[in-house]
Amino acid sequence: MTFNELGIIEPILRSLKEEGYTHPTPIQEQSIPILLRGKDLLGCAQTGTGKTAAFAIPILQKLYLDKGPAKGPRKIRALVITPTRELAIQIADSFTVYGKYTGIRNTVIFGGVKQGSQTDALRNGVDVLVATPGRLLDLMSQGYISLSDIQYSVLDEADQMLDMGFIHDIKKIIAKLPAKRQSLFFSATMPPAIVELSTKILGDPEKVSVTPEKPTADKVEQAVYFVDKSSKPKLLVHLLQKENAYSTLVFSRTKHGADRIVKELAKSGIEAAAIHGNKSQNARQRALGDFKNGSMGVLVATDIAARGIDVDKLELVINYDLPNVPETYVHRIGRTGRAKESGVALSFCDAEERAYLRDIQKLIGQMVPVVTEHPWVDDSPELPPAKKTQPQRPPRNRRPSPPQRPKGGGFGGNNYSGKPKRSGGSPRRSA
Ligand code: AMP
Question: pTM value?
Fold first, then answer.
């Protein structure tokens, strides 16, 4: 299947070719025909599957073919609502890239920054608006935005939206949309609350469900380091120097933790920046921009700030803290190994985090190899399991597989010398 065979028009085909997209991903292949036919869509898909293009391409095509009002300023005809600023910016960038030769104009609005440049862009007229819920409602209430001409609405990352407490905002926004419209609804998971919300938004939707091309855990080389909490900074510096990865995303569970890591790295002469909710939008965008264009090699992020971040050729993910929700681990390591790239994910596990590691291994259905040779190996016995903050779900995509060893004695082609061994319930790591 090619984009041509999906009936994509020439101006969009040209931009896809320039982007190097030769074939549609499964979600694109399934969704684009449904959306071009004008049907509502319920999509169960994670970031990394190509879902942005799956909705952006048909929306651009339909807007292009239906030029809109001949006279007067442009009216907002398509609305995309997404939970975080970073995702909003990324989606708007995608509309800009795929719509380069269509003349379709978009803008993005999100909170945490002054509204002046956003209202200026709106005043000039746009066809597509990408927004986070709070700022959208705010500018609606100030009279800068009318949703009365919306023909296409997209609710992206619905489960994340609910987790972040946006449900009331979403309902208020939906209530303002014209009844006659095409609605798209995407969520990585479909718990009952999401299904219920989708029935309020969608008419008689067609359903599409995809998992990433290869389960993330298969595509990413993984290893875990048992290390005492106090030695994590030294291990991080050691690995960053040894792996020499030019693009490394370090995950911290907390905002303060992320700032501390940046300071520790600075002491060793490693330049890094943190992105999290306490940083100004400008600081976050600057850090992300420097990271994406390669002028800064290390970005330290919390889970919320990093969700959906799409960095081409992200080589290495380091979990400085293991997450207590196992699905978060899969999200994190999925930052590397996106699209066709493969990546490496290294995790630090202190004695309190061993229980988290067990849950992660259960979820991904495989053992994460343990690196036994590094200067700060923690041999302390496992502590009693930490209190769980979330009930455990049964493992998904469970495939019994043998413990895996990183190939070629190295990660990402680097001169890695650790010896991974299978990990398990026991903290013992001798043969
Ligand atoms: P998304 O799931 O929308 O965040 O997309 C994940 C990544 O896949 C992004 O870097 C896209 O640029 C890339 N991508 C999307 N569609 C295609 C395609 N058909 N061929 C190659 N890369 C793609």
Answer: 0.63
